[in-house]
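Section 5.1 Outputs to date
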Amino acid sequence: MSDTAEPTDPHHDYLAAVRRLSEMAAAPPGTVDQLEFDMLLAVVEAWRQQHADEAEGTLMPGASDG
């Protein structure tokens, strides 16, 4: 294992979450892991809210919570 982990790209995380949610939406009923679904939905919602806030000028572009 390497000591230098590549930083995660929030945009990549968002796109991956949207893709996975799309796959889950096409899955047969009862085959979706609810915890995974909820976590992915939270990623998408956080991304959407951050960009809505930036558009309204309530956050500085590029600001992060951490």
